[in-house]
Specification:
Blueprint lengths: L20 E3 L2 H8 L8 E8 L5 H14 L5 E3 L10 E4 L8 E2 L7 H11 L10 E8 L4 E9 L5 H16 L44 E9 L11 H19 L7 E7 L15 E7 L9 H17 L7 H6 L6 H14 L7 E8 L7 H4 L4 E5 L8 E8 L2 E9 L5 H17 L5
Parallel strand pairs: 5-6, 9-11, 11-13
Antiparallel strand pairs: 1-4, 2-7, 2-12, 3-4, 6-7, 8-14, 9-10, 13-14
Helix pairs in contact: 2-4, 5-6, 5-10
């Protein structure tokens, strides 16, 4: 039973009993094995509200939301070196002060973003998340920074908890909206084949890296791309094409020869209601592109081919990290031995790692309405870890009719100026995916 399948429980087993324990599922164990302090595996969620929040009420509401989703209240259990599994220890209450209020100031937002990239909440204290509440002097509003240790949890699960906190704080309904319906293709075709998965894919060409380790981040807001009514492709397909063309343009500018691209795409089939399983619940698929396919002059054909490919990949049942990861994490030898084998394998297969990751959260399903005090969220950004060998991730979400894009990169590969150039290329190529209204 994986973490996202485990039923909710308070973790106490009654008074006087030790906390309940849950074995690490495959995704959590692999992430735990490959942890690196210089590039923490954090997910950053940034929610912009038009007004100010009462500190005591927000702290109480968020703490109550954690208890309503008790699978988030967990810490890594201690154990001997020869144990065969890592285990999560479920707790009834937080071990630490989860909600903090950094001092406001001109650079408060940038400092909070930097902390979200550079410092992961520890796995040894429950819960492995933190919420920073920054008062934005420029807009007189509030920005909520939720930093998540990705070994334990993913962004959509933590957004569900934040929606519960908003409902408890503001007293207004934050039930999820119905997901958009994909228009069925009247003449579906088999997904076109692309380059062989045995060929190492293209890498993002090296730009002007920075001397300090860690990740860099750039966020931007764009219009949601127009899509003609009845189109066989989705906004996600447009984002996928824009990402592929952005990297193609970038690599061409830096003298890299054309090579096949593979873009990792998380797929999340969980419900978004209060019964949403909490944990790392997405499965990863890889969308391939051959160099000759990435022709902007044949945009409609490229979008149609991408739509066929993503539709076929989403429909195929597949373990979250593939069948090989399940074998690698089988508890037949001590977990410390499996950790060494996993790290060695990761280094060996690095040339075959996908080119980049595009994580499209889609339209935020919750209103994130904090009532009369702070109002409803008008912008939500996510960012996913960008460790090498990928070195670049693109994360998108839409709120209030706007597309919120986060580019995150490894500073050993790119610098801030490179991020700005990639943003411009992405915006240009995303605009090109639109057909006239």
């Amino acid at each position: 039973m994986t973490a996202v399948q485990h039923p909710a429980r308070d973790g106490t087993n009654g008074p006087g009993r030790p906390p309940a324990r849950v074995p690490f599922p495959v995704v959590d164990e692999v992430a735990r094995h490959c942890r690196q302090d210089e590039e923490p595996e954090t997910v950053h969620i940034e929610v912009h509200l038009p007004g100010r929040l009462d500190r005591a009420r927000l702290t109480a509401a968020f703490t109550a939301a954690l208890r309503r989703h008790p699978r988030i209240l967990m810490r890594e259990a201690a154990g001997p070196w020869y144990r065969r599994r890592y285990e999560w220890e479920l707790t009834g209450d937080p071990d630490v002060e989860v909600v903090t209020f950094p001092p406001p100031g001109r650079d408060a937002l940038e400092r909070a973003r930097r902390r979200a990239l550079d410092s992961a909440p520890p796995l040894t204290a429950s819960p492995p998340i933190r919420l920073e509440v920054v008062e934005d002097d420029g807009s007189h509003g509030t920005v909520l920074f939720l930093t998540v240790n990705h070994t334990a949890l993913d962004g959509p699960a933590c957004l569900r908890v934040l929606a519960t906190a908003a409902e408890l704080y503001g007293g207004r309904d934050n039930a999820p909206a119905a997901p958009p319906v994909r228009v069925p293709d009247p003449s579906p075709a088999a997904a076109p084949q692309a380059a062989s998965g045995w060929a190492p894919p293209a890498r993002v060409a090296r730009g002007t890296p920075e001397s300090s380790p860690g990740n860099g981040l750039l966020v931007t807001e764009l219009p949601v791309p127009h899509r003609p009514k009845g189109s066989p492709y989705t906004v996600n397909d447009q984002l996928m094409v824009a990402t592929a063309l952005m990297i193609t343009d970038w690599n061409r500018e830096h003298g890299a020869r054309p090579r096949p691209l593979r873009i990792t795409m998380p797929v999340d089939d969980r419900p978004r209601g209060t019964d949403m399983p909490i944990g790392n619940g997405t499965r990863l698929v890889e969308v391939p592109f051959a160099p000759e396919e990435l022709d902007p002059a044949r945009m409609r054909e490229l979008l149609r081919r991408t739509a066929d490919r993503t539709r076929a990949l989403k429909s195929q049942p597949r373990p979250q990290l593939g069948r090989g990861a399940a074998l690698l994490t089988a508890p037949v030898v001590p977990v410390a031995w499996r950790a060494a084998a996993t790290r060695g394998l990761r280094r060996a297969v690095a040339p075959w790692t996908s080119t980049t990751l595009l994580s499209n959260i889609g339209r935020i399903p919750y209103s994130l309405d904090f009532g009369e005090d702070a109002g409803r969220a008008h912008a939500v950004w996510f960012s996913a870890p960008a460790r090498m060998p990928r070195g670049l991730t693109v994360t998108t979400a839409s709120t209030a009719g706007r597309l919120h894009v986060a580019l995150r990169w490894s500073r050993s590969l790119l610098g801030h100026g490179d991020g700005a150039r990639l943003r411009d290329l992405f915006e240009h190529r995303l605009h090109a995916t639109q057909e006239g209204p």
